[in-house]
Amino acid sequence: MIFFLSKKNMKSCLFFLILFFSSLPVFSQEISPVCSPYKSDCINCPDHQTLFPINTLDQSSTSLDIEANNSEIQGTDTYLFTGDVELKTNTHYLAADEIKVVQSSEMTTAKGNVEFQDESFIIKSSELSVTRDNGLIIATTINANYQNTDSGTLSPNGYASEITKKGPNVNLKNTTYTLCPLNQKDWYLEADEINLDQNRNRGVADNATLKFFGLPIFYLPKYGWVLKGRGSGFLTPSYDSYTESDSFDKDGKLVSYGRSQRFRVPYYFNIAPDRDLIAAMSYMSSRGFIYEGKYRQIIKPKISPEKKHSSFELESKYLIEDKITGKNRWLLNSSLEIDLTEKINLKAKYNRISDSDFFKDIERNNPQDSTLKSNIKLSYIDKEKSLITSILTENEQTVTATPEYQKALDLNLEKTFKVIQETPIKLDLSSTKFTHEDSTNASGVRTFGSIGISKTLSKDFPVINTNADVNKTYYKLNNSSNISRQTAGVGISFAFPIELGDGTYVSEFNHLITPSVSYNYRQKVLQGNIPIFDTTDKYDEIITFSSLTSGERYTGLDRVTNANDITLAITTSSSNNKLKFTTQTAQTFYADDEVVSNTGTTNYETRKSYSDLVTSIKLHVGDRFNASNDTQYNTDKNKIVKKKNALSYSITPKKFISVALSDEGTKETAQVYGSFPITKSVHFFGGLDRITSSGITNKETTGLAYESCCWSARIAHFKEGGGSKDYSYSTGFEFVFTGLGSTASPLKKRIESNIPKYNAQLR
Question: φ, ψ for residue 464 (rounded to 5)?
Fold first, then answer.
């Protein structure tokens, strides 16, 4: 069960109401209930045990094999076996101190240390009888322990005063039932009668009481669940306590709502193996009832078996007549990815809300710089002919961000020609219609064409690569004169890879030092009158080695950097099968002291005759330890002006630490995430995203989790600032009985979004 705690204690009746609904969940795709002992992040599970060692049944054999210390014939068709008796057929195994077989009635009775096994079930008792009815094996016994063995490490087991097993159907009287290991009965169901129908994959209990460490938690006169896999049923409900701001109601009266509550009950529909539906109803005491639905479907891909499955998702939320605003409030999210043919792929996304305050009022979060993007993209990919074409249209709904340009229509074509061996010629064509919700902003159609050629002159020492391209861009604008721009550029690079190793202790490492020099030229073209639709400056943040050596400063097509530059760089690498250490250093020297500007109505910006010196250091030790450092160094001031450091050590998704520190000159930030085991079953998790230069915490998450093969629980506390010191606080709690309950928990998704690399799945 999941609920959010307010500063005041919850009423006990609400707690037991949550427990009541929690008794109804079944397995869903949202949770994997199996806790395998061999998994490194699940070491708290004991070795899988069975009531007695499982015997292999020979399905191809039709004979009856009996082993015993003594045997005798009683009458014409009755046989008595005593002393360590074992009876084996292709369908079942039976062992006891004494076994009597009556051929005419096909009746077998066993006494003393009885062990019975078929393809899915085992029973251990002092007495048991086996007979046949229309080809089905019927086993009956009293005062016996049982175990379902076809569920892997998650083996339902218990004790019953009477067991009747007829083929795949098992009836248990005065019984217990648990999915805990044999030696760990933390929780169990106690019922007058339980029926396990393995054909229908359903279990039904009459007069069932759930006990936790021997204490009764709740009672249900009738309880049903899925024996294994997914099935329809209630998911874990949730409770949330929040503060509603004072506001005017629909009649214009100022109302103070104070502390309010939300209660949500979801239901899972297992429609088919490749599709499902989650329906939920929420009640917000300050606003009313919210109806929710989320449909998911997996679609088999047609392009290649290696590709992930295509999918379709549709999510909606609807609040009829908000008590405060008097308006209908709604949310609609949908996404589709499908391969129409082996070469044609369709992607579509539609995200909308009824009003910009929906997230703040209904979802109870207020994301900063938020927009909802919708788009449709149709792509054609022919790898054999090196051809890619696509058509895209997009639209966005601004929530809290500043409105941006949208691609009302975008057409793209990429084609590579290999006329000469190892000399590819690449053709790029695109035409994009940009629109803006503010009519005073420039809008229109940008048409771009480029043809480029690249060739490797030498693959040996030195490695020589050349490239050249010509592009033309035409702007047909709605509220200003049309603009045409044409640029051309060439480049050549020399790399001198040097391998080191002299047979000494360093020979176990592969050492490579690669000095390089490159020259790039691109003509200088006035561009201050061109509107900026989708272009950003890579140098606004820290200048990295990759951005400096890429040869182009801007993303997008609205600005093309002029160049008459020489870039010097050196890369070193030392590695073996466990460790890799890399360093990169580069600096560019400019022959032109002006550069194309991306500031509106400005053509050029002045610059030094050389760039800042940039360095990158990376260390990888196996798959567990990673460290990196990016530095931007101003050689005039002899000062590091920007830097970014990151370190992570990960053993499992629940045992790791990740630290990232950045200094952008005007803003310093720190991000720390981690999960630390306290015992084999308990671990602490936390995350901090903080602007250290201003003292503002964007997000802070702390929590504690307990996990075992029987049950799991966690508590998580959230502090969010949203770019200011007006923080909001909330606390969530989640409790799951393994195998009885499953969850589509908002708490899990919230923890994982706040703590990257953390797996918040309760085992």
Answer: -120, 125
